Here is the input.
Amino acid sequence: MPSDPQCSPTSDPPRGSGTSAVEVRRSSRRSRTVSAYREGDRTIVLIPARMSEAEERRWVSVMLDKLAAQESRRILGDSELAERAERLSAQYFDGRARPTSVRWVTNQNTRWGSCTPVEGSIRLSHRLQGMPEYVVDYVLVHELAHLLVPGHGPRFWRLLEAYPRTERARGYLEGVVAAGWLPHLPVAPAE
Here is the structure.
């Protein structure tokens, strides 16, 4: 661990997390961003060194709420996602694609989903949350197909032809990616 961050444990337990301690780490290299993560039974909050104690307390509260919301969404959403995958497998693959786990993840920023066929695990990027159902279903069907056919060869794409909204969903996702590369235009003030 670098010698720069200053650590200060707080006595406030994180709300909704079941953990017992919060550790605030200050860094002079961190200029504006604040982040937080779980490390065992502790919550680590990273803040700029110049932040006042009042700002620290506010940001610790904000980050604890954010982590709790993410964990709550993941806990509630994963079982629904697994049920959805089971229904889609039955509908499009006669139930042959049987994942051992299906869950949302927050560490996929360049992929919409991933599958490890050997383990039977499917992970979907949290960036899909809030997108139309047919788009999420397409990504699930895509990953389910990998349980049957690894890789993206002709046999894999033939499997995906069973899902009727494949092209529409792919177009939607391509649009999302393209929009991310567009410069943000100034918004005209409302009159």
